[in-house]
Amino acid sequence: MQVTEINADGLKRDFKVVVPAGQLETRMQAKLAEIARTAALPGFRPGKVPPGILRKKYGPAIMGEVLETAVNEGTGKAITDGGLRPAMAPKVEIISFAEGADLEFSVAVEVLPEIKIMDFSSVALVRDKAQVPDSEVDDALANIASRNESSEPVKRASKDGDVVVIDFVGKKDGVAFPGGTAQGYSLKLGSNTFIPGFEAQLVGKKAGAEAVVEVTFPEGYGNEDLAGKPATFDVTVKEVRAPKAAEIDDELAKSVGLESLDALKTAIRDEIARSLDGISRMRLKRALLDVLAANHDFPVPPTMFQQEFDHIWKQVEEDKAAGRLDASDAGKSDDELKAEYQALAERRVRLGLLLADVGRVNNITVTQEDLNRGIMMEARNYPGQEHMVLQYYQKNQEALENLRAPLYEEKVIDFIIELAKITDKDVSVEELRRDPDLAVSAEASDEAPAKPKKKAAAKKKTAEE
Fold first, then answer.
1. What does the pLDDT look like over 275-300, one tens digit per residue?
2. First-to-last CA distance in the chain?
3. H or E, element range at 5
4. Which range of residues forms the domain containing residue 356?
5. d(C-alpha 38, C-alpha 58), whole Å
6. Whole-prediction pTM value?
7. Final residue of a domain: which of 222, 244, 266?
8. In 10 A of CB 74, how many CB atoms?
């Protein structure tokens, strides 16, 4: 087997590989001999089939295996002998092959760049920190109390926010329709639970009142017989109930699964603190990545760059078609937008390669414990469905690998932060939350960033947040 480098241009390497016909034939004969020991064809005893017949029957399939093996070995030899670290899977193209002739094929490889990693101890950053205000804990308690409100009967006319207990019969053209009847139904006025216009016609009614409510079903209503059609509801108001907020006490805490009001306050404070810490970390990470980008300049593999740009541009085009394009981009031409997003794509790829190299050089790995912790963080985003989330990751290896990438990046970021000089700075909650993009990212619990839906969001993807 002869491997010849025919081109070395930047990060691209091209090779020509020639596998002699004799070597291919030797492997062919070895495979045929292996099959001959047990082959059984009509008219022949097992192991006694003539070589010519075996070759005619099995030759094409065997030659396919021989060629695949030869191509894999030739490609591996080109990479190993050259001491290359491929950035992508090599591209192989058969140049020529015929039975009895040499196999010639080309191998195109894009290699990872050589990266000179900066001294992280020279990095100096400021980390904004904010304390949890008591007012936010009080607001959260009030919201919980509101969500757990009850109601009590009142002897007055109903108003928005009240609950009316009603009997009703829905009619179309004077005839009751299926599913339009109920008794003792509790309806909160102003909740927009029923058809538009229904609830407003019950404002100002007292217990015992009767009313004919006239409505028109929406065009997109699920029942085609009613969609877009007028209807009436004969309604009897059985009771008017005023909302009553839950008391902020131990009983409220027990209703949400905690033993006391103090425990509930602690849980709320801890949750807000986690959110603020997430924003703080995201700000620090963004500043760190800016420093890394400014201090590392190396070429990026063309195919990796193109794939990243294509990914971004596809989302930009979808946003443009849906009218979601960021206002700052709206007046720009495609050429101007492409230039901006090409720079973004190059930065992302470069930072991703840098972080991967830092992790490789320093033997940073994602352990099973890291994965378990990441899965639990994901599960927290789906209250009540935690078990389903755990099962999803247990059964879906691809999803598990997708979770591994951002966890790996975060471990590398942590490693760099440990070496850098970090100065904490106390700021107000308002100042910390001033950047809405960072706040959204932090609330996502450092999850792998989504596709760019606008330019600001695009700049927060993995290795760019």
1. 999 999 999 999 999 999 999 999 99
2. 47
3. strand 2-9
4. 255-458
5. 13
6. 0.73
7. 244
8. 23
